[in-house]
């Protein structure tokens, strides 16, 4: 199995796993994620540290999507969606790019900048 196919399978697994997990959590916990998230950060505990670190990764992934596509309107929309919804959006976007770039990882990373 080549690297591109392995990465596609891993990304699909991640997205589906988080989506299924979310479908179980949402009815139990509701849509009040933001207040729980911010309370953990405010409390200066390990959950807060993880949430802050994770939000930095989410922002970075969104900015990368926007940068890669030269901040076109569609890339801004995709970037914001990935920054908010995480791997459920980011993984399918990467799978799409892997297919579009025919498994070429450098082109996946930098697009037409290489």
Order of helices and strands: HHHHHH
How many beta strands in the DSSP annotation? 0
Mean pLDDT: 94
Helical element count?
6
Radius of gyration: 16 Å
First-to-last CA distance = 26 Å
Q: Which outline best applies?
A: globular
Binned, the helix content reads: over 70%
The major beta sheet can be summarized as:
none
Strand content: under 5%
Q: How many domain units? A: 1
Low-confidence stretches: none
Which structural category fits the helices and strands?
A: mainly alpha
Keywords: Membrane, Transmembrane, Transmembrane helix
Protein name: DUF2834 domain-containing protein
Transmembrane segments: 7-26, 77-98
Organism: Paenimyroides aestuarii
What is the secondary structure topology, with strand pairs?
Elements: H1 3-29, H2 33-42, H3 46-68, H4 73-85, H5 87-100, H6 105-110
Organism: Paenimyroides aestuarii
Protein name: DUF2834 domain-containing protein
Keywords: Membrane, Transmembrane, Transmembrane helix
